[in-house]
C-alpha cells in the first residue's frame, strides 16, 4: 500500500487519545466533550493525517470499552467503536467545499449532522447488539445524546476554528483582549454564583445561568464571529462543568433544560456573529478599495501637476531668454541712436513678456511652491484673467495655506479656478470667491466657496450638475466633498497632518460643510 508512517502522526494519535480521555472525565451524556474533540481534530488536521486520528480514536475506545466486552458483547464493542469516526470524517469531508466561504455557518451543519449521525449509530447498534436492550426509550436517548454531542461540538469546534484563523485576523490584540476579558469575567462570576446556590434554588440558579447569555451577546455584537467563537464555548463550558455529575451517565433535568436553551442561543449567536463578520469583511474590502482608488487618484493628480510644472518652468526659461535677447536689441538700437524705436520695442516687449508669464503661471502656479496658494491666486495670471472679466470681486482669503501640503493647495487652486470659470460661462452676475484654511479635530484643510453675489440668483440645475462632474474628482482625492446649494458652490478638501495617524471613523468633510452653513468664516479655526 506504500504506507509511510510519520512520527508526527503517531504523536497526534497519542495526543488525541489523551484529549478524548480527559474530556470524557469532565463530560456527561448531556454534555459530551469528546464529540467536540473529534470534530475539532478533523477540522484542524489535513486529510493525510486523518488515519492517525482514527488510530487515536480506536486506542481511546479500546481502553474504555475493553472491560465492557463481557457485558455488551464483542460485536458492539468493535462496531460501535469503529464506525463513529469514519461517519464524522465523511460529514466533514462533504462540507470541505463550503468551508472556504467567508461565513462560518457551515459549522452548525457539521455539528448537527455529526451529533445526529453518531447518536443514531450508537442507539441502533445498542438496540441490535446488546444482549439486553437499553432501559432508556430510544427517542429519549436520541434527544439526550444529540443535544449532548451538539453542545460538545459547539464548545470545542469554534475555538479550534478561531485558532486556525488567528493569522488572518488583522485586528490588534489589545482591541480583542479587553472586551473579551471583561465578558468572560462577567460570565465566570455569574456561573460560579449559580453553582454556589443551594440545590433547592432552582429558579435562581437557572436565572443566573440564562443571564450569562447577555455578555455573550455583547461580545458577539462587538467582535462578530470571533466574539461568538469565544463566548458560546465559554457559555456551554461553565454550565456543563457546574452541572452535578455523580457518574458519567447521570442526568440533570433542570440543567438539561438550561443547556437546551443555551444551545439554541449558541446557534443564534454563531449565525449572528458570522453575518456580522461577513458584512464587516465586505465593508473592509470595499473601504480598502476606495482608499486605494483615492490614493491612485491623488498620485495621478500629483504626477499631472509635476508634468505641468516642468512645462511651466521650461516656458519660463524661454521667456527669460527672449527678454535677454530683446534687451540686447534695445541696447544696440540705443547705441545706434534709435531711441524712439528702442523705447517702443521695449514697451511692447514688457507687455508681451508680462502676458507670456501670466499664461505660463496659469499652466502651473510656480509661486504656490514657495509662497502658498493665496499669493498664487493674487499675483498670478489667474487674478489678471478674473479682473479682465469685471465680474469677479476681490477674493476673501483667510488662514495660512502654507501649513497645508503642496498637493492639497494645487488641488484647491485647480478646483477654485474651474469653479469660477464654470460660473463665468454658465451664469450671469458678479462672482465672489472665499476661502479659509484651518483645523478641525485631527484634520487640516480648506473650505472654498464660489458664489453669485446676488443671493436671489440661484444656480441652474445644469450648472450644479457640471460643477459636481468637474470638481468632485479633485475633492474626493483629498477626502473632501463638493456641494451646490442655492447661489453657491462649496468645496472642502482635507488631509491629516504629517504627524497624525491615518484612518478616520467618518468623513469629516461633511462636518466642515455643515459648519459652513453658519458662515464659512467659522468653519475652521
> How do the strands of the widest beta sheet line up side by side?
1-2-3-5-4
Report the structural category. alpha+beta
| Unreliable runs | 499-507, 512-525
Assembly level: single chain
Bin the helical content.
55-70%
Count of discrete alpha- or pi-helical segments spanning 4 or more residues = 20
Report strand %: 5-15%
Shape: elongated
- Count of distinct strands: 5
Quote the average pLDDT.
82
Report the biggest beta sheet as strand number plus sense, adding barrel if it closes: 5 strands, mixed
| N→C terminal distance | 79 Å
Radius of gyration: 38 Å
- Order of helix and strand elements from N to C terminus: HHHHHHHHHHHHHHHHHEHEEHEEH
Structural account:
There is one protein chain. This protein is of the alpha+beta class and 525 residues long. The chain is built from 20 helices and 5 strands. A 5-stranded mixed β-sheet has the order 1-2-3-5-4, sandwiched between helices. Helix 9 (173-196) packs antiparallel against helix 11. Residues 499-507 and 512-525 have low confidence and may be disordered.
Quickly describe the structure.
By secondary structure, the chain is α+β, with helices and mostly antiparallel strands.
Tell me the layout of helices and strands.
Elements lengths: L6 H19 L7 H12 L5 H16 L3 H4 L1 H9 L1 H11 L11 H24 L8 H27 L8 H24 L5 H10 L1 H11 L1 H17 L11 H83 L3 H25 L2 H6 L1 H7 L1 H9 L6 E3 L7 H21 L4 E10 L2 E10 L8 H17 L3 E5 L2 E8 L12 H9 L9
Parallel strand pairs: 1-2
Antiparallel strand pairs: 2-3, 3-5, 4-5
Characteristic terms for this protein:
20 helices, 525 residues, alpha+beta, 7% strand
